[in-house]
## 1
Amino acid sequence: MKNRGNKLLLGFLVFSLLILLVSIFYTEDPSVDLREEKVDKEDPSVSSSEEQVDKENPPSGLGEEKIDKENPPTGLSENLLNMNPNPILDHPSAGRRTVGQRKISLDSYDLKVETATHWKLPGRRLEEISGLAMTLDDHLLAHNDEKAVIYEIDYRKGEIIKAFQLADMKAPVNGDFEGIATVKDQVYLVTSSGRIFEGSRGADGESVLYNIYATGVGMDYEIEGLAYDASQRVLLLMCKSPRREELKEQLVIYHWSTDEKQLIEDAHIVIPVIEFTRHIEGKEFQPSGIERHPVSGNYFVIAARQKAIAEITPSGQVVAAKRFPAEWHRQPEGITFAADGALIIADEGSGKKARLTLYPVSENR
C-alpha cells in the first residue's frame, strides 16, 4: 500500500509539472487567437483594412466630391480642351468661354447691314468718338478726340450710362486722343503724339488723377490706335502717318510694357502696306484703330478712310482684310469685342450723331 501511495503521489507530481510546463509554454508563445489579436494591431485584418480603405478611398458621395475638384466633369473638360490654345482671355466671362470653343477669325463675321445691330449714340457728346475698349466685367468704354472724358456705354441699348474724366482739378485734360485700352481697373489713353495717360475707372461725374508717360514714338509717327495684349502685358501703339519719307509705305505697331512703363526696344512690328491693300481694292490702308481678339489672340485693325478691317497675327502676318458696308460706316474709328464675341465698331458722326455697330459671330462659320 505504501508503494502504491508513493506511485500515486509521484504521478500527481508529474502531472502537476506537466501542467506547469504547458502553462509556461503558452505564456511565451501565444495561441492562435492571441496571434490573431497581435496581427489585428500590426497588420489589420479584413475589417480593419476596410476601415483604412474608407479613409483613403471615401464612399461614393465623398469620392465624387473629390473628383469634381481634381478632375472636372466631362463637359467642362471638353470645353477647356476645345478652347483656343492662347491661355489668356481678356474678358473671362461665360460668354467668352462659349465663344472660346470656336476658332474665330475675320471670316467669322458677316459684315452686312442686315445681320448687324446699329445704334445712333444720343446727343453730341460722342460725335467725334475715337476709341473703344471693353473692361473685364464687359462694360464698354469710349472717348472723344479732344478731351480726356471717358464714357461708359450700354452697347446692348445704345445708351450712355455714365462719364468720368482724367483731370487735375475740375477741367478734363485736353489733347488729341486717339485710342483707349483697359488693364484690369486701369484705363489708358494715348494721344497722336504718343503720350500715354493712365488713370483708374471713375464713378459718374468723377475727376480721376492720372499719370503721363512719354513714349517718344511721336517723333517718327502719328499714333492712331491703342489696345492691350494681355498675353505679353503690353499696350499696342498703332502708328498711322510717318513723319519721315523713309518710313512711308509701312504700318508699324509699337509695344509699351505696362509693367516697366516704357517702350520695349526692338519689339515693334513692321508690315508693308501692300500686305493690306492686296486684299482690298486701292493703294492705301490708313489705320484708325486696333484691338486684340480675346480668343484667337490676333490683332484686328480698322482703316477709317478705306472703310476696311484687317486681321493680323502678333508676328505681323496679314491673315485677311475686307471692307465694311459703306452705306453705314462713315468713318470707323473705334473697335473692340463684346463678351459674346461680337465685333463692335464706332463711327464718328461727321456732323451728325456717332454710330455704334455690332456684328455677331456667324453661326455658319
## 2
Amino acid sequence: MYIAKVLEEHKEGKEVEIKGWVHRIRKMKDKVFAVVRDTDDIIQVVFSNNASSFNDAEKLKMESALIVKGKLIKSEKAPNGYEIQATKLDVVDIGEDFPIQKDFSTEFLADNRHLWLRSRKMNAILKIRSTVTGAIHEYFRGQGFNEFQSPIFQSTQCEGGSELFEVKYFDKKMYLTQTWQLPAEAGIFSMEKIYTVSPTFRAEKSITSRHLTEFWMIEAEMAWMKFEDMLEVGEGLIKACVKAVLDKNRKELEVLGRDPKKLEPTVKKKFPQITYTEALKILKDKCKMDIEWGKDLRTVEEEKLMSLYDVPVIVTHYPKKVKAFYMKEDDKNKDVVLGSDFLAPEGIGEIVGGSERESNIDSIKKRLKEMGEDPKNYGFYLDTRKYGSVPHSGFGMGLERVVRWICGLENIKDAIAFPRTPNRFYP
C-alpha cells in the first residue's frame, strides 16, 4: 500500500504494509526510528528491540530499500502525525553509504543529480511538471487541436544562427532544432490547429538562472487565427496549467514551501495587455528606467516591469528589428510586428512568445535578405506561401520556465530532471 493511502485511511491499530526507501534514520539502544519514503509521502517506522526485526533494522542505511509490516499508531511527534510500529521487516537492499548526507552545495548536487532526484524537493517538482504536461495535452485537445511532430534534425535555422547546435549528418551539416515552427507551418495547411510538446536546443552560452541548452517547448500553430485570438489561446493555456497544479498538487506545493495564494490570481484574473511602447513608458514613470525605443527588453527590465503585477502580462507590438523574420508587420505601423511575449511575475520574465505569421511570400524573402539569409535555403517554407496562403498565428511556451514559476524555484535547472547547460552535460 502507498504511504499516502495509509495516511488517508488513518485507521489506528490496523495492520499495514508499505514498500519504500529509508529517508532518514536514527538509531538508539532500544529502538530504531526510520522515516520511510515512497513516491507519494513519508511515514515514521519504529523498530523496537523486543521485535524480531530489530537486528536487521540496526543495519539499515539511508536509501536502504525495504518492505515493512506493522500497526499504524497515532503519534504527535512523527511526521504526518502517524507511525508504524514494525512487526516484520524485509530488507530488499541495504545499499552502500548514501553520498548525499552533509554536502548540499549546488555543484555537489549537480554532480549527483541521478541521486538527488530521490529528494522530496525534486519529487515534488517533477510531479508538478507531470501535471503541467498533462494539462497542456488536455487543454489543446479540448480546444480541437491535433498533436503534430516535426524533425529534431533540421537543415535551416529559425531563431538565430549563433544559437544553433551544428551536427554531422553523414556527409552533410544539420542542426538540432531550435523550434518546431517552420515544419508546423506546413502542417496547418492540412490539420489547421496543431501543437507539440518536444525537446528544443539552443546553443546559448548564457549561464543564468533562466537558461538551458536543452529544454522542452510547447508550441502551437493555428490556421485562420488572427493575432488577438492567438493571445486568447496562450492565456487559456497558462491558466489551465496553473489551475491543474492548484487542483492536484497542493501537497507538492507545501513540500516546496510555495504559497498557492501567489498562483491563484493567475486563474482568476484577466491578463493585462500592454504594447512594447507602453511598457517603456511604465518602466520610465514607475521604475525610473529610461530605455531607448527599439531595444529588446532585457531580464532586468522584465523583472522591474513584472514587479508591478501579480499575474502574467502580455507585451505586444515589439519593434520589427528585434524580432524574427516570420512575424507579420502591423498594418498601422510598419516599425512594429504583431508579436508578443507573456511575462510571468516574481522575477521569471518571458514564458511564452508568439506572433501572427507573415503570409506574404515577398515580405518574407525581403526579411530573410535583411537578416543575411539566403531565401533559397527556405524553399519548403516559402512553398507554404505559394499555394493557398492564409492568415495564421502561433506561439511557443517554455515548459521549464513555467514549472520554475509555478514551483517558486530560484533556478531553472531544478525544473528538469537532468539539466543541460554550457558547463553541465553529466549525468
